[in-house]
Write a structure and sequence with these properties.
- With 504 residues, the protein is α+β, with helices and mostly antiparallel strands.
- Helices cover 32% and strands 26% of the residues.
- The strands form five sheets. Strands 3, 5, 6, 17, 18, 19 and 20 form a seven-stranded antiparallel β-sheet that branches. Strands 7, 8, 9, 10, 11 and 12 form a six-stranded mixed β-sheet that branches. The chain has a four-stranded antiparallel β-sheet with strand order 13-16-14-15, with helices on both faces.
- A hairpin with a 2-residue loop joins strand 17 and strand 18.
- The chain is globular and about 65 Å long.
- The N terminus is likely disordered.
- Belongs to the eukaryotic GSH synthase family.
- Keywords: ATP-binding, Glutathione biosynthesis, Ligase, Magnesium, Metal-binding, Nucleotide-binding.
- It comes from Cylindrodendrum hubeiense.
Length: 504
């Protein structure tokens, strides 16, 4: 692998060199679980009816150059972000106002809030809450001054099903294994860091009063293609001593395989499908599903979420923490103070602290689309064929593929009832510096300009009642890359690919 200081990067490879590298990447990826289940466009379902096939995850052949100071900036602010979002999730009044502002155009958010209200009415029995968070950034190149500066600017903050921690760890190992020069490749221990967060919640849950063995449940989607990313985390937890039982449970089977104990605490009991006589008490529910409306096709799915939320298991996340991760919350937190009102951020992090200054440095410009003065001004920008070219329109959704970009914004907004516009936010596009790389996707190469997005993980365990933070750690990183002509960047959604950093 060529050095960044020795000429072209990535290097110009001869045909035989390229083929040898591709073979190495393909074999290493499958051999080490840097893999996904294939999409039907690659292997048709009828050709793989038992879903036994796996292919290497889309990945860059080389680590992408990433500014060292930006990498350090993103990692250093993560614990502050953990603290911020733990505080937001505890402020029910604040979240109630957020829900009120978006529920008119968003049934999903309204339904989540209704489940919370229903559980609140009878009383939550578990005060502890676990967050496995990921804050996503892009490098912004400010060209407005004579000396262009680089800073990371936050794209979004994920509070539920923050994926790719397992695959990120192995992508860094892949690039380390094929690096021939002394590139500065930071160590990636994300799988270990996230597992440690789940383990901390498991140990915080007391010994079962009912005499059952404790367990961790991964709540997953049926037919999950990104299964190996989840498995790496599961296998990392399984290395614990003493052993921690970990089980995967499809969301659709929650009511089939779990019950609530008839006690004041409502302990969540899980019966092993292969041995129903064996009962575990669920200490931690780690949700890798439940973040999208498609996870709730009918009332039974909502009944399942209510069933889990009212249980004594430690949730990762609770509904309140899931709602804290909405784009509307991000927009409100990033709105600066005015001469007549303090910033919303100051409600959670005092304005005159270095923590607040670090957060403000990472914020980009985000605007409401409601009927406030700022919202009406943002509507003008969104509807203007020229001004809209600098923005992305975002709904309150996770998972990739939901955003509307640039020139497509006016027509999209006009297709939505105006009464629902307030459930969207308008974000100024971040301008990254140009980077070149080669992507291997489904056996094909894509070479040219790319855009990189850095994710930094964090783990946080706190008491929802008292505010006591029992754990607050930065837990690793992820680099995802897409072609510079692509708008979306989700790997699982088919837009981006896995990557790692070489610091420059």
């Amino acid at each position: 692998m060529a050095s960044l200081t020795s000429g072209a990067y990535p290097p110009n490879l001869k045909a035989e060199e390229r083929e040898a590298l591709i073979e190495t990447v393909k074999d290493w990826s499958i051999g080490n679980g840097l893999a996904v289940r294939p999409p039907p466009t690659v292997i048709a379902a009828e050709a793989d009816p038992k879903a036994i096939s796996a292919i290497n995850v889309p990945v860059t052949l080389f680590p992408s150059p990433f500014p060292r100071q930006c990498f350090a900036q993103a990692k250093s602010v993560q614990k502050t972000y953990n603290e911020l979002y733990a505080s937001v999730s505890r402020d029910e009044q604040f979240l109630a106002q957020v829900v009120k502002e978006v529920e008119g155009g968003d049934d999903f958010i309204r339904n989540l809030w209704n489940v919370h209200q229903k559980v609140k009415a009878e009383g939550y029995t578990q005060p502890l809450s676990l967050g496995l968070f990921r804050s996503d950034y892009m490098v912004h190149q400010d060209t407005s001054t004579s000396t262009p500066s680089l800073q990371v600017k936050q794209v979004e903050f994920n509070t539920i099903a923050a994926s790719f921690g397992g695959l990120s760890t192995y992508t860094s190992l892949l690039h380390n294994s094929i690096a021939e020069d002394a590139l500065d490749l930071p160590e990636n221990t994300t799988a270990h860091g996230l597992a440690a967060g789940i383990e901390s919640a498991y140990h915080a849950y007391p010994k079962s009063e009912l005499g059952h063995q404790k367990a961790v449940i991964f709540l997953v989607q049926g037919g999950e293609r990104n299964v190996f990313d989840q498995r790496h985390l599961e296998y990392q937890i399984a290395k614990a001593s003493p052993a921690i039982p970990v089980f995967r449970l499809p969301y659709a089977d929650v009511l089939k395989h779990t019950t609530l104990a008839d006690t004041a605490k409502r302990q969540l009991l899980y019966r092993l499908p292969r041995n129903p006589s064996k009962v575990y008490e669920v200490a931690v529910i780690y949700m890798r599903s439940g973040y999208d409306p498609s996870d709730y096709p009918g009332q039974e799915a909502w009944d399942a979420r209510y069933h889990l939320e009212r249980s004594h298991a430690i949730k990762c996340p609770t509904i309140l923490t899931q709602l804290a991760g909405t784009k509307k919350v991000q927009q409100i937190l990033t709105t600066p103070k005015t001469s007549s009102a303090p910033s919303a951020l100051s409600k959670f992090i005092k304005d005159d602290t270095e923590d607040a200054a670090e957060l403000w440095r990472s914020f980009t410009n985000i605007y409401p689309l409601d009927t406030s003065e700022a919202g009406l001004e943002a509507r003008k920008k969104a509807l203007d064929p020229q001004l809209c070219q600098s923005y992305v329109l975002k709904p309150q959704r996770e998972g990739g593929g939901n955003n509307t970009y640039r020139g497509a914004i006016p027509a999209f907004l006009k297709s939505v009832p105006e009464a629902h516009w307030g459930s969207y936010i308008l974000m100024e596009l971040i301008t990254p510096p140009p980077v070149q790389n080669i992507i291997l996707r489904n056996g094909n190469l894509e070479q040219g300009g790319v855009i990189c997005e850095l994710g930094v993980y964090g783990t946080c365990l706190w008491d929802q009642s008292t505010g006591e933070v029992r754990r607050n750690e930065e837990a690793g990183f992820l680099l995802r890359t897409k072609g510079d002509k692509s708008e979306e960047g989700g790997v699982a959604a088919g837009f981006g690919c896995m990557d790692s950093c070489t610091l420059v």
